[in-house]
Write a structure and sequence with these properties.
315 residues, 11 helices, 72% helix
Length: 315
């Protein structure tokens, strides 16, 4: 007699999120070498047509194929988000490690710099870059990367300080291991899961931020299609041709949903206690959806809660 296999924590979220992200990424990669039509080819006689055998998602106000534009726009949007996260990690993770491993003054300076950068919204940074450098896709990448760097630096610092408080790290320090050795051999291997989770969340934020910046004219310019620019062009035709906005809006929503589900699933897989705590809180009527960026803080709270419960029982 066989029994149904119980799904592991995060399995469903990872599967669904992986499928969504995989589909959008595949379309974006295929668009680099092939699209059904040239995404910048104007064909006014067939403009504003609905879905058909010739144009599966219809055409826009200039007769351009919507499917081809979504595929090409995905290359720009997802490429910008991935590039921003990579640049943010290259800049933010070392700063966070320096803050955690350095002395008091190093930590103070790094935290001050992180807070200063974090205080500037992505859109404001993009508009400043637009004023300084003019329009271009590099502005969106840099603006989002600056935000990602501040987030990853803060997460790295907080997570690294928790690792550095462990006894085995203190023992490594006692035998003379320097800051670089501690960071490479002990800190990074133990915080890579948290950084991976946070990176998936930042990818979702990056897709939204790129769409917002290109909507405002900060990112990639014509003739390069982007999801944000498609939304900007569609706002004039929303009343009579809502599909003009639904198509790029759905692409953005599916990408963001996929990355968020991946983040949730990875969080539950890497720390199943968080999934169990969420289910217990849901049954008690006080369900709370934690942010993957603060997974370590939540774990500490759960430990503190269990400790206080034990003290009250002993009393």
């Amino acid at each position: 007699m066989t029994t149904a296999r119980t799904a592991r924590p995060g399995e469903v979220q990872i599967a669904v999120g992986g499928v969504l992200v995989g589909i959008m990424a595949l379309l974006a990669l295929v668009a680099v070498v092939w699209t059904p039509f040239d995404p910048v080819d104007i064909d006014v006689p067939v403009r504003l047509q609905g879905p058909s055998l010739g144009h599966w998602l219809g055409t826009d106000y200039l007769g351009r194929d919507m499917l081809s534009m979504v595929m090409a726009g995905g290359s720009s949007s997802l490429g910008t988000a991935v590039s921003a996260v990579l640049l943010g990690a290259l800049a933010g993770v070392p700063v966070g490690l320096a803050a955690a491993l350095g002395g008091h003054w190093t930590d103070t300076l790094c935290r001050g710099a992180i807070d200063l950068v974090f205080a500037f919204p992505v859109v404001l940074t993009g508009l400043v870059l637009l004023a300084l450098n003019g329009p271009g896709s590099i502005n969106a990448v840099v603006a989002i990367a600056v935000f990602d760097a501040s987030v990853l630096a803060r997460v790295t610092r907080n997570a690294a300080r928790g690792v550095l408080a462990q006894d085995y790290v203190r023992a490594a320090r006692a035998i003379g291991r320097g800051p670089l050795g501690l960071a490479w051999l002990h800190v990074l291997p133990n915080i890579r899961g948290i950084l991976l989770i946070q990176s998936t969340v930042l990818l979702a934020i990056g897709v939204l931020a790129e769409a917002g910046l290109t909507y405002l004219g900060v990112g990639a310019q014509l003739p390069q299609p982007t999801w944000g620019k498609m939304l900007f062009d569609a706002q004039v035709f929303m009343q009579f041709h809502p599909g003009q906005a639904i198509v790029p809006g759905t692409a953005i929503a599916l990408s963001v949903l996929g990355f968020n589900l991946l983040g949730d699933g990875l969080r539950d897989r890497l720390d199943p206690r968080l999934a169990g705590a969420r289910r217990r809180r849901g049954r008690s009527g006080g369900a709370l959806r934690e942010d993957p960026a603060v997974a370590t803080v939540i774990t500490s709270d759960l430990a503190l809660e269990n400790g206080l419960k034990g003290v009250s029982e002993r009393r």
